[in-house]
Write a structure and sequence with these properties.
Strand order of the largest sheet: 2-1-3-4-5
Radius of gyration: 29 Å
Number of strands: 7
Largest sheet: 5 strands, parallel
Length: 203
């Protein structure tokens, strides 16, 4: 990856928390840990992570609430849920609420790293796609802009900047001339008069 992905690990069991931290750290990820759901939610108010791995069953604030708050802040936040064999119904509920994946404890190291890498790569691709979609295409010659909707034949349509702004904002443009363009036009006019191409208007 061009830059290290950041991962928040949330678990109230020190052994699992530290095992996850070391596993991700060995793979080159930037890791941070939270010992409770409360601490995780506090961190989420201040920081953004590429991936959150949270235990499902914790005191006070559980993994489902961490999931909710993470998704409320960033709808595309990747969240993995760690759960025990007896908690599968809750894991399914977590998926329904937007969790991206869940893993049964004790987790398999290789499986976890593979799923994390796949999810993070997908997130990077979605971010790039969103960036490209947000860019406006403008012709370098005539300055027309590519419309987001095709014409009646389903073909690509290019419209003037005025038409594009009017369509996207609902506002009409008033036309004027900036000082630089006014000066250039006056110089062109003076040159045409000097060359005798046009005659100056007599008062």
């Amino acid at each position: 990856m061009p830059q290290q992905a950041s991962i928040l690990i949330v678990d109230d069991e020190e052994l699992i928390r530290e095992s996850l931290r070391l596993d991700f750290q060995d793979m080159g990820y930037l890791t941070e840990v939270a010992v409770s759901g409360e601490e995780a939610c506090s961190l989420l108010k201040e920081k953004e992570y590429d991936l959150i791995v949270t235990d499902l069953i914790m005191r006070e604030i559980d993994g489902l609430e961490v999931l909710r708050q993470a998704k409320d802040k960033h709808v595309n936040q990747i969240v993995f849920i760690l759960t025990g064999y007896g908690e599968l119904n809750s894991a399914i509920e977590a998926l329904r609420l937007g969790a991206d994946d869940y893993l049964l404890k004790p987790y398999n190291h290789d499986e976890l790293m593979l799923r994390a890498a796949k999810s993070l790569t997908g997130r990077t691709l979605r971010q790039k796609a969103h960036l490209y979609e947000s860019m406006l295409s403008i012709c370098s010659e005539c300055k027309k802009m590519r419309d987001s909707e095709p014409d009646e034949n389903g073909e690509e349509r290019w419209v003037s900047i005025e038409q594009f702004i009017s369509k996207t904002t609902g506002s009409d443009l008033s036309h004027g001339i900036c000082p630089d363009c006014y000066q250039r036009k006056m110089e062109e006019l003076s040159e045409m008069i000097r060359l005798g191409l046009i005659k100056p208007r007599m008062p």
